[in-house]
Design brief:
This protein is of the alpha/beta class. Helices cover 43% and strands 18% of the residues. Strands 1, 2, 3, 4, 5, 6, 7, 8, 9 and 10 form a 10-stranded mixed sheet that branches. The longest helix is centred in the first third of the chain and has 23 residues, at 2-24. The termini are far apart. InterPro entries: BUG, Bug_dom1. This is Tripartite tricarboxylate transporter substrate binding protein BugD.
Length: 329
């Protein structure tokens, strides 16, 4: 009997040891996938690819790939990660949509607050109001006059219901007390293509996606959505919405990193540690600043603070979405 007990105990210890070795070896040789719930070429995709490069070294040089799973305002990609193996090899990079999905969707196949491990915030991204290159207006005053003269005929592009561009567009219409025809796309990339081509008139989108287009004079820029002017060379001359006469209009988009619920604590710590290293990487910071984004350096880089912040954002945006009467099935 004693021999049997010793054998069982030895087997149990061996299993625990193997499990500990497997966890200690994370990430090992298996690639890590960062799921972006929007199409390639969009602002969140750009952040993800820069972050993947910056996190590779602190994670031992492991391969980190980006997987675009676009659709349904980011909920398809988020659900994909929520249902993935909780081993740290499948992550989600999402923006403010994590806080707006609970208000936008009557029924989600996952819980934003309960089905993810929060790994830390990445950046804060201002937004810009831009127009097609052939638009007759050249400044915000001329733009509002043009909007007033063309009521019911203006097309406002966005990256889909729940996307940052959609939320900004809602607030913009509300601020001007006007209605525009919103044109949803499967991501900001195709929306930007049609804006440049003149198929749509306006779009409000993140600086990570608009800065290079503004710099290249492929679109017209009218204002930024921050409380203060930006210092990025291509954007420094743009007025804030407040300066342009739109009161209390401030929208900043943020990005955070997530893992499936149940991912072991030592694995999430390794990921959080790697994220902190990446956020101090001079090359990553330079790339983000060049796009008008600000890399997070406050307490939101901590897992618990990240989760607390998103909960506060859910409480902030849900009543706004409800008041606008916008819902997605």
């Amino acid at each position: 009997m004693k021999t049997m007990i010793k054998t069982v105990a030895a087997a149990a210890l061996a299993t625990l040891a193997l499990g500990a070795q497997a966890q200690a070896a994370f990430p090992g040789d298996k690639p890590i996938t960062i799921v972006v719930p929007f199409s390639a070429g969009g602002p969140t995709d750009r952040v993800a690819r820069d972050l993947a490069e910056a996190m590779r070294k602190p994670l031992g040089g492991v391969s980190i790939v980006v997987d675009n799973a676009a659709g349904a305002g980011g909920s398809i990609g988020a659900n994909k990660v929520a249902k993935s193996a909780a081993d740290g090899h499948t992550l989600l990079l999402h923006h403010i949509g994590m806080a707006t999905m609970p208000g936008l969707y009557r029924k989600l196949p996952f819980s934003v607050e309960n089905d993810f491990e929060y790994l830390g915030m990445v950046n804060d991204v201002p937004m810009t109001l831009i127009g097609k290159p052939s638009l007759p207006a050249n400044n915000f005053k001329e733009l509002t006059a043009w909007i007033g003269q063309n009521k019911g005929q203006i097309n406002l592009a966005n990256a889909g219901i729940g996307a940052a561009s959609h939320l900004c567009g809602l607030l913009f219409q509300n601020a001007l007390q006007t209605q525009m025809t919103t044109v949803p796309y499967k991501g900001t990339g195709p929306a930007m293509t049609d804006l440049i081509g003149g198929q749509v008139d306006l779009m409000c989108d993140q600086t990570t996606n608009t800065t290079s287009q503004i710099e290249g004079k492929k679109v017209k820029a009218f204002a930024v959505t921050t409380s203060k002017r930006l210092t990025t060379p291509a954007l420094k001359d743009l007025p804030t919405m407040q300066e342009a006469g739109v009161k209390n209009f401030e929208v900043t988009i943020w990005h955070g990193l997530y893992a499936p619920k149940g991912t072991p604590a030592d694995v999430t710590k390794k990921l959080n540690d790697a994220l902190k290293v990446a956020l101090k990487d001079p090359d990553f910071i330079k790339k983000q600043e060049g796009l008008g984004a600000v890399v997070v350096s406050d307490k939101r880089v901590e897992q618990a603070e990240h989760k607390k912040f998103v909960a506060a954002e859910i409480a902030k945006w849900s009543p706004i979405i409800k008041a606008a009467g916008v819902y997605a099935d």
